[in-house]
Amino acid sequence: MAVNTRARPSRAATTGPPLRRLGHLLVRRRKLVLALSLAMLIVAAVLAAGAASGLSLARFEAPGSESDRAQAELVKRFGTGSPDMIFLVTARSGTVDDPAVEAAGRELTARIGREDGVAEAGSYWTRGKPATLRSDDARHALIVVRIPGDADHVRAQVLPRLVPEITEGTGLLQVRAGGGEEVFRETVPLARQDFVRAELVIFPLAFVLLWLYQRRAMAALVPILAGVVAMVIGLALLSGVLLFAEISTFALNLTLAMGLGLGIDYCLFVIQRFREETRDGKDRASAVAGAVEHAGRTVLFSGLTVASSLAVLFALPFDFLRSFAYAGIAVVAGGLFAAVIVLPAVLATIGGTMLPKRVRPERDAGFWHRLALLVMRRPLVFGGVATAVLLVLAAPFLGLRFGVADDRILPVEASSRQTQEVIRQSFPAEETDAIQLIAPAAAPGDVPGYALTLSRLPGVAQVDTVAGSFADGRRVGDGEPSRFRPQGGGQGTWLSVVPSAAALADDPVRLVESVRSVEPPFAVMVGGYPAELADYRASVVDRLPLVLALMLGVTFLVLFGMTRSLIIPIKATLLNVLSLGVMFGAIVWIFQDGNLSGLLGFTPTGTLDPSIPILMLCVAYGLSMDYEVFLLSRIKEEYDRTGDTELAVATGLQRGAPLITAAGGILALTFAAYATAQVTFVQMLGVGMAVAVLVDATVIRAVLVPSLMRLAGPLNWWPRGRATTSAR
Length: 728
Hints:
- There is one protein chain.
- The chain is of the alpha+beta class and about 725 residues long.
- It has 24 helices and ten strands.
- The protein has helices at about 10-15, 20-30, 30-55, 65-80, 100-115, 150-165, 180-215, 215-240, 250-280, 285-310, 320-350, 365-375, 380-395, 415-425, 445-455, 500-505, 510-515, 530-540, 545-565, 565-590, 595-600, 610-640, 645-670, 680-710, and strands at about 85-90, 120-125, 140-145, 175-180, 435-440, 460-465, 470, 475, 495-500, 525.
- The strands form two sheets. A six-stranded antiparallel β-sheet has the order 8-7-6-9-5-10, sandwiched between helices. It has a four-stranded antiparallel β-sheet with strand order 2-3-1-4, sandwiched between helices.
- β6 (about 460-465) and β7 form a beta hairpin.
- α2 (about 20-30) packs across α10 (about 285-310) and α23 (about 645-670) packs antiparallel against α24 (about 680-710).
């Protein structure tokens, strides 16, 4: 009689919790899973390449705002709009008023106006020689250019052709390019270089750190490969999003930064649990199933927490910030797929190469266990000191001042920044960043009085209108009246309020508020670049309470779903808010106030653009909850087994803290590598996130979590209480 030697699934493989059954299924079908995963990865790589090239260059805009409506009206009725870029023209000898230089300047202005994609071009020589378009020493003059179209069209199609051609200059003129569109055109490739260069440093360093922690080359390599899988799948998913939404090119940077970190984190927890199950005497199939059941559940809750924190960005009506929500959710999905589906099949196949060479008995009374007991003996002392230290570190946050980003986010050697520096230092006003007041029903006779009042405002250099130009409460010239009349005739006009260079550098939003506070004699809409910035900032800041409420509420529900406790999510929220306070304290102290600017090589402006801090808020909160979920899952598991809160905290910390510290260190390294970036936005993201992760993975998890759980005692688990079944 023949003996059937084919392995049959055990009863445990077909019963038990769903994740355990999934683990057994992945073990049984490991070859099929790996083959399908490889095929999926190849397809994802193709889609990812297409997604990277399909990302767009988003602008900071507030759709539907007053400035947005004003800009549309300006284009529709008057055939003009805010300049997209400028050319700084320098006389190689003499001044810009010399007849030969003037003739060359007029010719160059006309030439630019004839270029494909250019709607209009005006200059010092063609607009009546206003003082606002000439430098104080008369060596420089400006040509202002309007290029209609979205950011992709302007920055990717027109400027790459126009700028090299025009900046060749002439025998009499030297020409340099500047303006907002040119600044951001230079920002994108520099930011991409920063991230690629950082990743090239991070990969080998992460491998070394993982090897030092795992002591096996394969156990160090597999999490890094999982990070790559997370990045590729994340980008591939974005290719689907691109079918119905615009994604900013900066979302690619977040995908690279988070993909590697989360991929490593999630795989580390699964591998660590696989090692524990093996050390407890389980065979490989049971060890993999146990890792999927316990670590897999933790990883799924963690991913849901991170994705939920980023999803609140959908509450903001800005494509730029929504891009990061799409990217973050996509890369989390990629990390979960790598850790919960692919990794178990890998462990079932080559899991032996990831086990330590020498099996040491598990120690429940090691350093972290002793530290937890020490802290819980004096919870008020240790918790109070730790809280006081973190509050001191967070204190600079109280001085946060929101502003707007400008060319100083670029390194000093960037050509557009050099152009803007000359304009900032040599020109009395910022003609290209004028505030535009559109008056659809105004009669020309009503304009002079209103313009005179506006010209007296602090920070206003000049007001140009259909009735002439005004400065310091008096008429100073005829200007260019035809610019301010509707196309095809009819009623209505608009006014150009030119800010001084000092006002624009100090606080353009405050100047916009001053202009809006003047009672007009007719209905006006306020537009122009400063108004766009003011409306964008106001829209972001106004929706900040909603973002915070959604973020706290959603993550509370996720933690409640994991712990069935009302107290633990409240405690976790308070600790994470404290962690965020330290992060914001650091970025205010460094990037707003300028401390360490010499070391990091950036130029502080005294304010922070609200977009990046809000992005950091959502990312950091999600990652902080990430480690909270990891630690709480171990503590809860021990509490379900023993019913002793203090023992559960000490044992959970002993088993979870080393891994959390290692994972946090690697993730902090991933972000800290961006401190060497050339773009200040990238530096801010890297430094702030590294600080948040390090504080969260050390002081908060090692000191404040044990302190608060000791003080809460049995209330930690209210209203659920102790579980009736063991988690092991």
